[in-house]
Amino acid sequence: LLGQILDQWFESEPLKATLATDGVIGAMASPHTPGSGYVLLHHVMGEMEGRRGAWGYVSGGMGALSQAIARAAAARGAHIFAEKAVSHVLLGRDGQAQGVVLQDGTEVRSKLVLSNASPQITFLELIPQEQLPKDFVQRIQQIDTRSPVTKINVAVDRLPSFLAAPNARDGQPLPHHQCSIHLNCEGTHLLHQAFTEATQGHPSSRPMIELCIPSALDPGLAPQGCHVVSLFTQYTPSVLAGGRPWDEQARNAYADTVFDCIEAYAPGFKASVIGRDILTPPDLERIFGLPGGNIFHGGMSLDQLYFARPAPSYSGYRSPIPCLYLCGSGAHPGGGVMGAAGRNAAHVALEDFRHL
């Protein structure tokens, strides 16, 4: 249990709760849920520029990272087709992957196919079910994809000024503006309470908020004096109590709750807002293809990790379809901006390619 691990090492409740957020981030779990300790480990086991457990911003926004990878691939001769939806994987008579068919009917033939879509999309939508073992299909259907995350992107006309650390007179970013700011994390009991509300179908009345201001480090993201604020919040259920939909009223009501919480820490925040973009779990699924809105393509619980990710006997990136490989967050070792699943899958695919 995440709570037990933190209790062993720390006494301060605000410190424990703030650290606990990395153990429940993206997970429909509380600090008291068995296995939550692993998610914390997953988030601090890496390193950046030699600093273990460190995180960083991508200059130019997260899209800049995708563009850098795309440029590196294109320099090696890759052809990239953006905004071209795949209809299904092309299979030969022997059931082997031979390319993909786009929704416009175009066939792209290949000796190997690597999919970084979720296991659900890859195997339940892009492959005919009769081509797959029944127990494998059942396992993919049973993956726990519950997600508590609602992401809110905000444009503001000035930096938030927190009661605990007021802004400088010149309005320039202070050190805390350049970090991850955790709100409503005074105690782990608050996180558990927020989780409990969501399990009953109600968005948290006092949600966990991770607030980042990337423009404090990367001024090119916003006009001078203005800023972009990224709010990673939970817990919000995918389906609201009584089967109510996440309509505009429900989305704005939850966002107002989040903004009221921030206002209590930083008076004047609501008045500084120029615009906001609210992405609930169904929005994250519809826009980005994340099953259930889950940022990891499936919960990072102990029964869905290591040899069981995405299914027992299929953690080695190969799939029941010869020459089709899974290389996204749904593969081992799971989600996160680290590229481990893709790198490992590429090595397996290259090894197989030599024998084709």
Give a brief rundown of this model:
It contains eleven helices and twelve strands. It has 356 residues and is α+β, with helices and mostly antiparallel strands.
Quote the beta fraction.
15-25%
Q: How many DSSP helices?
A: 11
Termini distance?
Answer: 46 Å
Number of domains: 2
Provide the helix percentage.
25-40%
**Could you say which overall geometry the principal axes of the C-alpha atoms support?**
globular
Number of strands: 12
Reading the helices and strands in chain order gives HHHEEHEEEEHHEEHEEHHEHEH
Using the CA coordinates, give the radius of gyration.
22 Å
Strand order of the largest sheet: 8-9-10-7-11
Quickly give the structural class.
alpha+beta
Low-confidence stretches: none
Protein name: PYRD2 protein
Family: Belongs to the carotenoid/retinoid oxidoreductase family.
Describe this structure in words.
With 356 residues, the chain is an alpha+beta fold. The protein has 2 domains: 82-144 and 291-354, FAD/NAD(P)-binding domain, CATH 3.50.50; 148-288, no CATH class. The chain has 11 helices and 12 strands. The strands form 4 sheets. The chain has a 5-stranded antiparallel β-sheet. Strands 3-4-5 form a 3-stranded antiparallel β-sheet, with no helix packed on it. A hairpin with a 5-residue loop joins strand 3 (86-91) and strand 4. The radius of gyration is 22 Å and the shape is globular. The termini are far apart. The model has no long low-confidence stretch (mean pLDDT 93).
